[in-house]
């Protein structure tokens, strides 16, 4: 029997231990069958280029562990413990019915946002929610990570803070991030999250159950809809037009309203100021909580930014969610929640019994990244670059795609387009992908898909130089399907 074992001669782990670990894994997994004879120490030492003493020591350890039996004058034989010998494997018995044990969550039948795993290899990745890998401020971020592991920062990077947050990061958010959005808070009103999605999940746990109702935009952020339906609450649609969500005459009977007012997800329209005031007035009167998901307010390219709902709140019923993901890196999974001290205290307690807190080093590194000025330098450069991309893609779409009366809201990181009934989206997407063009379907964002046909074209992850050629090529795909 030949055994192919990869040993690291430069490792601090002794060779006999490496060999023992590998053979143990092969035996327990069933790849070395019960009763099978192992090579002699002379033969295996020759195969692996190691001493016979090393192999003999390994075999002795395996015998002591009960995985191998030594037979005088006959050699060493695999001995699988009785509990797993019937199957030849330590895997669980195949007849166990896990499907009967698993609890099926609410909303399990909803469609899901899906992105090709290799989207970054495509020539034209018009994908939403991602960034250009080459533009990530790797050196500045690496410097912050290193600094976070030295005094006086090391303690905050490696401690288990139970339900607490890094005080320096909270301070930087309060002093350097929130004022730019018209939000003013103290430490009791801020909590660090693993991205805004964790914030949504905690709010669903704290505010929703099968007896309650939440109103959210239609079309709207599909992952948020999944989260809310998992709570068992009634999830009600809130129609959207060119001025954002259409505010109902009353929110009586609605416990929570979820909205993305800066740039509506997925259409990117901005909620008008009149509707902001109307929503706040009606929610305050009915005792309704308003969740403001401000996921990409930094990216407005024309006109003055609108005030956040939180900055207009006079009742204290608005919860603000922010994130560092959309311009810096979605993989960092870091964001923040701002709300009443009572809500934040409850959210921290809820978080303690799931993840405790975001990783300490990441929190301290982000605090140092903001404090050093690297955060705002990166933000300015990213905003300038995204503004150029916005101009390129809107001009290219208007010139090369056969859209009727295309409308481009003044911000966001993607475009939303109705391609009309002449171009079936279920044929358009694979045909575009065959040309290296990755775009996203839009029907999944609606509660009930309408007769119109929508696509989403992101421009955060694609290089500037690829935008116009990619849209031109997408126009050719359109023509081939008409």
Overview of the molecule:
By secondary structure, the chain is of the alpha/beta class. It is 39% helix and 13% strand. The protein contains 17 helices and 15 strands. Strands 4-11-10-9-8-5-6-7 form an eight-stranded mixed sheet, with helices on both faces. Helix 10 links the parallel strand 5 and strand 6 (234-241). Helix 6 crosses helix 14, helix 9 crosses helix 13 (341-352) and helix 16 crosses helix 17. The longest helix has 27 residues, at 374-400. The radius of gyration is 29 Å and the shape is globular. The relative contact order is 0.12.
Could you name the key traits of this structure?
15 strands; alpha/beta; 482 residues; single chain; 17 helices; 13% strand
Strand order of the largest sheet: 4-11-10-9-8-5-6-7
**First-last Cα distance:** 63 Å
How large is the count of helical segments?
17
Unreliable stretches (pLDDT < 50, length at least 5) are 83-90
Multimer state: single chain
Q: Shape, please?
A: globular
The counted number of beta strands is 15
Fraction of residues in β-strands: 5-15%
Report the radius of gyration as a whole number of Å.
Answer: 29 Å
Helix content: 25-40%
């Amino acid at each position: 029997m030949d055994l192919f074992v990869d040993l690291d001669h430069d490792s601090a782990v002794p060779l006999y231990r490496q060999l023992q670990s590998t053979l143990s894994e092969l035996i327990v997994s069933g790849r070395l069958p019960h009763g099978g004879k192992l090579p002699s120490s002379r033969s295996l030492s020759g195969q692996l280029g190691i001493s016979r003493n090393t192999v003999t020591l390994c075999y002795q350890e395996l015998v002591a562990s009960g995985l191998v039996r030594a037979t005088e004058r006959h050699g060493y034989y695999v001995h699988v413990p009785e509990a797993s010998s019937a199957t030849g494997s330590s895997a669980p018995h195949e007849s166990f019915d896990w499907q009967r044990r698993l609890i099926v969550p609410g909303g399990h039948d909803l469609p899901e946002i899906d992105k090709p795993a290799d989207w970054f290899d495509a020539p034209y990745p018009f994908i939403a929610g991602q960034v250009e890998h080459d533009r990530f401020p790797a050196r500045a971020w690496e410097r912050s990570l290193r600094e976070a592991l030295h005094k006086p920062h090391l303690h905050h990077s490696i401690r288990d803070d139970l339900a607490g947050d890094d005080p320096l990061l909270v301070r930087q958010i309060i002093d350097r991030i929130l004022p730019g959005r018209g939000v003013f808070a103290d430490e009791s009103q801020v909590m660090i999250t693993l991205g805004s999605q964790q914030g949504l999940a905690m709010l669903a746990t704290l505010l929703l159950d099968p007896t309650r109702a939440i109103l959210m935009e239609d079309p709207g952020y599909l992952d948020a809809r999944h989260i809310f339906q998992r709570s068992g609450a009634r999830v009600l649609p809130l129609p959207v037009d060119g001025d954002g969500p259409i505010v109902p005459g009353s929110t009586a009977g609605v416990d929570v309203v979820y909205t993305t007012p800066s740039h509506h997800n997925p259409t990117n329209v901005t909620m008008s100021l009149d509707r902001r005031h109307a929503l706040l007035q009606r929610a305050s009167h009915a005792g309704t909580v308003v969740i403001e998901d401000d996921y990409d307010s930094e990216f407005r390219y024309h006109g003055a930014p609108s005030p956040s709902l939180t900055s207009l709140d006079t009742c204290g019923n608005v919860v603000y969610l922010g994130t560092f993901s959309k311009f810096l890196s979605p993989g960092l999974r870091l964001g923040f929640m701002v709300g009443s001290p009572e809500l934040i205290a409850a959210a921290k307690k809820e978080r303690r019994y799931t993840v405790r807190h975001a990783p300490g080093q990441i929190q301290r590194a982000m605090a140092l990244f903001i404090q050093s000025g690297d955060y705002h330098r990166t933000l300015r450069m990213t905003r300038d670059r995204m503004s150029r991309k916005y101009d390129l893609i809107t001009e290219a779409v208007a010139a090369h795609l056969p859209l009727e009366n295309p409308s481009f809201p003044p911000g966001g990181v993607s475009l939303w387009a109705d391609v009309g009934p002449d171009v079936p989206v279920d044929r358009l997407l694979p045909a575009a992908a065959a040309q290296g063009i990755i775009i996203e379907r839009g029907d999944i964002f609606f509660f009930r898909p309408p007769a119109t046909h929508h696509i989403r074209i992101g421009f955060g992850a694609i290089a500037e130089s690829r935008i116009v050629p990619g849209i031109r090529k997408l126009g050719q795909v359109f023509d081939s399907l008409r």
